[in-house]
Amino acid sequence: MSVSRPRPALSAQRLLVLVGILTVSVNLRPAAVSVGPVLEEVTDGLDMSHTVAGVLTSLPVLAFAGFGALAPWAAARLGVHRVTLLALGCVVAGLGGRSLVDSAAPFLLLTMVALAGMAAANVLLPSLIKLHFPNRIGLMTAAYTTSLAIGLTASLMLTVPISDAFGGWRAGLGVWAVLAAVSALPWLSLIVHDKHVERARHEISLTDIARTRLGWLMAVFFGLQSLQAYSIFGWFAQLWRDSGYSPTMAGNLVGVVAAVSIPLSLWLPAAAARRTDQRGILLCVMACYPLGYLGLMVAPHSLALPCAILVGIGACTFPLVLTMIGLRTRTPAGTAALSGFTQSVGYILAAVGPFTMGALYDATGGWQVPLWFLVALTIPQLFVGLRAARPGFVEDQLPHPPHVSPPGRGN
């Protein structure tokens, strides 16, 4: 009878981890995408050019590339839960601070602080899932990508109404700092009560992953996916404003792009995890990207809603690639390393997207050429993604594969 007493504590701890994962997931995108719906007001208020605005929309991918690479190293030394809490602290400070400044330079700097926190948490979440829920990768990835999609959708659709209701874009951007502060609460408990897990060593480095073919396939696929996503969330609100929609409606349309991923994020990771080969699912999802872009070239106003839905389905390659990070590894250490390498290298590639969109928009004065740019990039994205979606484990491609137990099913 007495030996069963520790089980409720363990169950409560797992519940706390679950709550922590879901709450931090909600905060993984507001710092990056909440600017889009009020980009015109921010650029006017801070006297930014379109080129500087392009730098602003490129900051998420630059931050994710640089700081994401440091996350596995920091977690191995400080503890994965402590680094996650520190990451949320950066989000709070950056989001709160940037809503108070009056010029472009500190706004960009504080945005980078917030994005650094997002980058670290972004990389660590797949390894947290592999660590705490190794036999439920699909289910847990579905849960956290759905929470991420909810936070993404809310920041896209509520930033303008909050700005209108509370006196301007500063309130619309600053409110997300409050959400991040509340989300840090579960992690305050986790750093105190879960010290054993904190000491787990990471035996696979980013350099090890860089020596594998699968690591590079995943990184390029992730990078091209992120290039598409951040181009969309950085510029499509402006595209729809230029086509005649009000700022609120333009933000809502970008919100539709994000909202489509909410139901699909509940289904897609679990469906992918039930298969050893994800190529069929990937092909169906990615086919929607060019259809949506071509529709926007033809009629950006009248076809706005169906095109937003199609583009939103295409953007669900994001939860799919996050699921694949867990499915292509055998251990939490491998997941952390593959996640760090995939996202850091991938986001370097993705940084080209938003900046190029802004430059092409400035150069041509319209959206036809920028949209053709996105259409063209779906071809290499599909090619690389199909190769990465084949069955395999990154540990098996290491020069000296670590001894690991067979992974559990990730459904």
Uncertain runs are 1-10, 197-202, 406-411
Oligomer: single chain
Largest beta-sheet details? none
* Secondary-structure element order, N to C: HHHHHHHHHHHHHHHHHHHH
Tally of extended strands? Answer: 0
Helix content: over 70%
| Fraction in beta strands | under 5%
The radius of gyration over CA amounts to: 20 Å
**Termini distance?**
32 Å
Mean pLDDT: 84
Category by helix and strand content? mainly alpha
Number of helices: 20
Question: What is the 3D shape?
Answer: globular
In short:
By secondary structure, the chain is mainly α.
Molecular structure report:
With 411 residues, this protein is mainly alpha-helical. It is built from 20 helices and no strands. The longest helix has 30 residues. The N terminus and C terminus are likely disordered.
